[in-house]
Design a protein that fits this description.
This protein is of the alpha/beta class and 474 residues long. It contains 20 helices and 18 strands. It has helices at 7-18, 25-42, 58-72, 89-97, 106-112, 131-143, 188-191, 214-220, 230-233, 246-258, 271-277, 308-314, 332-336, 348-355, 359-364, 366-377, 412-425, 430-449, 458-463, 465-473; strands at 2-4, 49-54, 76-81, 101-102, 115-119, 146-149, 171-175, 193-197, 209-211, 235-239, 263-267, 282-284, 296-299, 320-322, 342-344, 380-383, 389-391, 397-399. Residues 213-472 form the YjeF C-terminal domain.
Length: 474
């Protein structure tokens, strides 16, 4: 599992370690890891041209010491000092002693660079870059590969928000621990490939953010045993579709069946369309409480203005996943009254409606938004989007590392609701079901899109769920 920690937690761990180490040792560890990463990106160090964008903080010192190491190996290293009077003096002295120099013409040096190192602002920075730093960052991106020190300058380490101009890096070398902002858009897309350098920090067991990996998801996925039957494996009820959107029902049922459900009970007006594709589905005209035994409900995809079924489902004593149209009829009070788990799965526009703000506000502050939704509704919230986040009122937020931008296609959310609902019915907690469901859904989409990426259909994503399952568990 990949974990991320807040700036405050990382700073505390750094102070504790520095108290036990010789002065400057921690910065040397960071600089050594940074220099190795730069060497790998350059391929050939001797004769290469490296430019360091150096701010006034420790990130500037890390960049200067790493530049000194590269200069000793034959690289031509030039440091652009954004605050010359506040530059790290030890690092600057080391760079000069190794043959590096302070740039007297930043634009020229950046234009000729084989690699640019961003050491402008550290993890404590807030807000966007100042005009001169922003100009240099734009020039660097247009000229050469960019490596960010700890995180791209100008992004918020704790939230992933970008309030103004920020560095866009090809790779980020981060020290001691991942920071939440490196895993969440819009900052994530600016970080490029991530590399974690172990500098010896002792961190608490409870992280602020988690990103599950194959092994973590494999432990969560339910598997049948010899005594299993369809009820032991989990029966999920699906209330989806309408005369206008029958395909939403088909896709949600497809996700549920491919997601491992022992059986799917479908309730709604699209029974003929569902049975034509999946004759194993158990169908019922409704209402949901008359449809038969289920271990979880999925409601919302394509139901239009039908709200009576939602009240019926919310009154049940089993976990409920509410998506799409179903979200429009929710109130925090009604969700809080439930005794069983409730999982809400909005995209940014739906989350904005629930929060009473603009979609752009949610997209700019995804972490804040998902936490606020979880607290306001007393539910588990899966916020879909460029980075899918799963949050509860307390505890670490989970971020899904799988997926592809090709998932931005009609019906993909219906498939996600189905597979996640099947995991709820199998007995996973709402948090685990949301995490594992999003993970499988993302892997299936990658398989459908192919290595080079290509347009995909939601039905194709559903068709690859079994392959994703095998990829995780093999």
């Amino acid at each position: 599992m990949r974990t991320a920690y807040s700036v405050e937690t990382v700073r505390a761990a750094e102070r504790e370690l520095m108290a036990r180490l010789p002065e400057g040792a921690l910065m040397q560890r960071a600089a050594a890891g940074l220099a190795v990463a730069c060497t790998e990106l350059l391929g050939r160090v001797y004769g290469s041209r490296v430019v360091l964008l150096v701010g006034s903080g420790d990130n500037g010192g890390d960049a200067l010491y790493a530049g000194a190491r590269l200069a000793r190996r034959g690289a031509g290293v030039a440091a652009v000092l954004l605050s010359p009077e506040r530059a790290h003096q030890g690092g600057l002295g080391a760079l000069r002693a190794a043959g590096g120099r302070v740039s007297d013409e930043a634009s020229r040096d950046i234009a000729r660079a084989d690699l640019v190192v961003d050491g402008i602002v550290g993890i404590g920075g807030r807000g966007g870059l100042r005009p001169e730093a922003a100009r240099l960052a734009r020039a660097a991106w247009e000229s050469a590969p960019v490596v960010a020190v700890d995180l791209p300058s100008g992004v918020d380490a704790d939230s992933g928000e970008v309030r103004g101009e920020a560095v866009r890096a090809d790779a980020t070398v981060t020290f001691g621990a991942y920071k939440p902002g490196l895993l969440i858009d819009p900052a994530r897309e600016r970080a490029g490939a991530l590399r974690l350098v172990d500098i010896g920090l002792t961190l608490p067991g409870d992280a602020g953010m988690e990103a599950l990996q194959h092994a973590d998801v494999a432990e969560l996925l339910p598997r049948p045993v010899p005594e299993s039957d369809k009820y032991r494996r989990g029966v999920v009820g699906v209330v989806a579709g309408s005369a206008r959107y029958p395909g939403a029902a088909v896709l949600a049922v497809a996700g549920a069946l491919r997601g491992g459900a022992g059986a799917v009970r479908y309730v709604g007006p699209a029974a003929d369309a569902v049975l034509a594709r999946f004759p194993e589905t158990l169908v019922h005209a409704g209402p949901p409480d008359k449809a038969g035994r289920v271990q979880a409900w999925v409601i919302g995809p394509g139901i239009g203005e039908e709200s009576d079924a939602l009240e019926d489902v919310l009154a049940s004593e089993v976990p409920v996943l509410v998506d799409a149209d179903g979200l429009r009829f929710l109130t925090p009070r009604r969700v809080a009254e439930r005794t069983a788990a409730t999982l809400l799965t909005p995209h940014a526009g739906e989350a904005a409606a629930l929060l009473g703000c603009g979609r752009e506000d949610v997209e700019a502050a995804r972490l804040t938004s998902v936490r606020e939704l979880a607290a306001r509704y007393g539910a588990t919230v899966l916020l879909k989007g460029s980075t899918t986040l799963i949050a509860e009122a307390d505890g670490p937020v989970r971020v899904n590392p799988t997926g592809t931008s090709w998932l931005a296609t009609a019906g993909s959310g219906d498939v996600l609701s189905g597979v996640t609902g099947s995991l709820l019915a199998a007995g996973l907690t709402a948090r685990d079901a949301g995490s594992a469901g999003a993970y499988l859904h993302g892997l299936a989409a990658r398989r459908a899109a192919g290595p080079a990426g290509a347009p995909i259909l939601a039905s194709e994503v559903a068709g690859h769920l079994a392959d994703a399952w095998r990829e995780v568990t093999d």
